[in-house]
Amino acid sequence: MTSLSLSFSTLVKNKDCLQKLTVFCNALHTQGFRSLRARLWKRDFGAMSPGVGHVLGQQPGAKQFAATMCTSSASGQDMTNWLLSVYNDTKRQTEDLIPAISRNSVNPDTIFANNEMSLGDIEIYGFDYDYTLAFYSSHLHTLIFNIARDILITEHRYPEGLREYEYIPNFAVRGLHYDVQKALLMKIDAFHYIQLGTVYRGLHPVPEQEVIAMYEGCHVPLENMSDFYGKSSHGHTMKQFMDIFSLPEMTLLSCVNDFFMRHNIDYEPVHLYKDVKEAIGDVHIKGILYRAVEADIEKYICYGEQSQAVLKKLFEHGKKMFLITNSPFDFVDRGMNYIVGKDWRDLFDIVIVQADKPGFFNDRRKPFRRVTDKGVLLWDRIHRLEKGQIYKQGNLYEFLRLTGWRGSKVLYFGDHIYSDLADLTLKHGWRTGAIIPELRKEIKIMNTEQYVHMMTWLQALTGLIEDMQVHRDTASQAVVQEWIKERETMRSQTKDIFNAQFGSLFRTYHNPTYFSRRLSRFADIYMASISCLLNYDFQHTFFPRRTPLQHESPFWPEQRPSGARDTPSRPHRTQASSE
Predict the structure, then answer these.
(1) pTM value?
(2) Which residues are annotated as catalytic?
(3) pLDDT in tens, 114-144
(4) Which of 108, 154, 289, 570 is least enclosed by beta carbons within 10 angstroms?
């Protein structure tokens, strides 16, 4: 049987291979081998294409023509014509592949694995509350923005003119870094490099050359990055915004910066950051947010994420469940009554509120305290954590001692990569599941014909540049430089599909984002919402896809392409590359 491990650059330049590929597309779709799109989007030119002469040599007369082109007697016009011919052939043949690639769309309800994990091993399920069991409408971010903006004006004496700013729903994305001293919001990749074009001062982008001058390049040294929990402390100048509640904070910082710049007001960026942080904190700490949501719960909480169905399914299968949240009991109780019903506490073995995560996972000093249904704090010593009771604060070490729930039989879900998941997986060996609501939107974008078309051609064009850069004559380099310009334009366009300012949550052009790096390290599995669990039975094993390392060739057969929409009752996934 003909090998399935041909590189994309070989396929798009070899008509015989393309004819065979058409046959293989149907076989791959029906027999369940690795998706065509996953293989196309993983370029392996170094291992699979020794050189352009080898590729062209597979076509009649191509080897002789390539030799002629590479001699010193070949004219610049001949080289230009030949390169343009290769370009046009590659583009035409790439277009022919789009329908086959588009058929392997990704199911947004898939659970994705970073680490192999079987639900058959899980006996105890733990949950955060906000953005894990309870999902909020966009009205909540507007509310947080407006209250914090008004606190800046009334309590911190910021200019009244700030009231002209309203919340901008699609301005920022989660996972961005903020340079506290320079007042710059930006996206950084997994290797600490700034993605040029995503650096904003206020509401406007900073020119690339200015960014390069300020940072003496694009790399941010480790000592300047945020600390373990994404905070700007102990000399770290960067703050990373990791939770969904931080979107209004990023937008408010940008709006205040914009106001000061537009009015030529001299200000200290560090003071601005601290004031905005304090104002946002007051929205939560002073209970303003909680009272507003409780007063109009239907406006702010989205009912329909099927959290109730997930909890009842777990309960019916005899699984232990617990809740650990930083939110107060009254707020959680009102929300859970709306989402699950008045009997929601019957489903949980342990309920802990105002836990003060991530301190809950590290600080051994805080004991548990029992809280009555009326919110009264009791003073008795806690010797066991009982079902039906409500507990406040405490710490994980005491939790482990009282419950014995240790190790990989526990799976905890949360939306905050640091505060919810990091310590649990690194220090305590619990299994972790990240809830990433943005995932559903990004997958839907990646499934569009526009995105598939742009990304497939972008990868093919990158392969052309990589192969043809060996021609160092002036005419060839002029053509390759035009291709490079086209590639840069396309990279910006694919970024803008996700978010016009900052692009995808998961990629900075080709590299993973810093957010993606932390997600892959601290979460065994991740999904768009807790409702994705309804698509799997409790014996299901999640396998991470074995993608080749850069020095490996993809010779081995792989599992069925996860995410393909061929079995509605059992969602899978395929590999897709953002930006």
Answers:
(1) 0.83
(2) 128, 130
(3) 999 999 999 999 999 999 999 999 999 999 9
(4) 154
Segment 18-56, tens digit of pLDDT? 343 333 333 333 333 333 333 343 343 333 233 333 333
Residue 224 pLDDT level (bands cut at 50, 70, 90): confident
Count the helices and strands in the chain (H runs, E runs): 21, 20
278: left (phi over 0), alpha (psi -120 to 50) or beta: alpha
Looking up tokens 């004219």, which residue turns up? 75
| Residue 478 φ/ψ, nearest 5 degrees | -65, -40
SS3 at position 112: strand
Q: Which two tokens stand for residue 233?
A: 């402390």
Residue 17, SS3? Answer: helix
Is 518 exposed, middle or buried (CB count within 10 Å of its CB: 0-12, 13-18, 19+)? buried
CA distances to 132, 299, 319, 340, 464 from 347, in Å = 16, 26, 10, 10, 58
Residue 176 burial (CB count, 10 A): 25
Instruction: Give the span between the Cα atoms of 490 and 507, in whole angstroms.
Output: 15
Reduced DSSP (H G I as helix, E B as strand, rest coil) percent helix, strand, coil of the chain, to 5:
45, 10, 40
The three-state DSSP-derived secondary structure of 335-394 is HHHHHCCCCHHHHCCEEEECCCCCHHHCCCCCCEEEECCCCCECCCCCCCCCCCCEEEEC
In Å, how far are 83, 115, 454, 487 from 481, measured between CA atoms? 12, 41, 19, 10
What element of type H or E holds 79?
helix 76-102
| Inter-residue contact 295 to 143 (CB < 8 Å) | no
